[in-house]
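[job 0412] stage=complex_fold ligand=glycine status=START
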Amino acid sequence: MNILIIGSGGREHTLAWKIAQSAKCDKLYVIPGNPGISEIAECVSGISVNDNNKIIDFAKLNNISLVVIGPEAPLVNGLVDDLKAAGIKAFGPTKAAAQIEGSKIFAKNLMKKYNIPTAKYEIFDNADKAREYIKSEGAPIVIKADGLAAGKGVIVAMNLDEALSAIDEIMEQKSFGEAGSKIVNEDFMDGEEASLLAFTDGKTIVPMIPSQDHKRVNDGDEGLNTGGMGAYAPAPVMNKDIVKLAEDKILKPVIKAMANENCTYQGCLYAGLMIVNGEPKVVEFNARFGDPETQVVLPLLNSDLVDIMLACIDGTLDLQKVEWSDECAVCIVLASGGYPKSYGKGYEIDGLSKSKSLGNLIFHAGTKNVDGKIVTDGGRVLGVVAKAGDIKSAVDKAYKGVEVIHFDNMHFRRDIAYRALKFNK
Ligand code: GLY
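[job 0412] stage=complex_fold status=DONE, emitting structure tokens
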């Protein structure tokens, strides 16, 4: 069958890499893709990921049987609904179901109604009232813009000043536009974070290998929040007992709750969890695969991803085998110096083939092909991914793969997977 992926980052490169291995995949297209993806699929320029009509026209013209949507914006924009209405199978939640990421208020109210463990919260549409609440609660406190804010709408304020400036920024200066006209003020949860992605057809939910992201830009979890500077899987903090607890108390109840609210959820559900005294609690739900988590989770999947995706769409996930490797995977994100603030672009990247020849997978995120040369074109530029029998060997292999890559102002963290390494000592 012909398959189309929507998106252009490291997550979509990983999806393309895994889908291209499927016996079911005859021809793979990606809108818009990136130079790394173009080595394994046909990248299509000139169609916006938010232009549902043009995507449907393209899908019809190219006999596409399955569309896989990477980022959240097209999901919240109803791309799955429109593709389904046009008779084209699509992997991902509908617009109504994608609210679980598109509205923090929807997600928090759902969790409250169905007793899904999460932090206590209050909702505000008035900045003065939000400030009053923050002053009475004190810091640390978490402030979340209700709507989508390109991954920047959550502020973990460690003191009162930070919390009050977050209210100014979101509600008064409207840095995220209408996405910040309502906010959630939420209790700070102290624990260790982990990401649990899961496949679901709306009735059955199958957790993937648990992983851990590194959100801060510098070593030791210092500096600004980013989209993710690296990841590894499996995350030892999510042992079998905690995964089981997360399945029973979070994943199964949320899927039931969504069906009960008439917004049955199909696709990949991302549960961002905080493990507090051995109990998983929900930090956030996302309506898509995580990035960079996908770059370490999918390389550990032994089963055919297209079969699993079709089972999610057809409601037959209970009959589907989902098998995992018992190896470990580590991803080091190579970023442009300055990210997540302003950074330069257009720097030539050397060493990609050498890194691959050392046995690493290289997933492109912010790259561009200029006259046959690969140059930097974004904040997160590349993911260098290594697999090995244990986490230490995977870390060493990934960093060996990083050492041979160079571009001006390259920045990366040198401590990816440090929590797992401590755990295993
Ligand atoms: N790694 C965080 C996310 O995908 O939202």
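The chain has four domains: 2-94, 120-187, 192-319, 328-423.
[job 0412] exit 0
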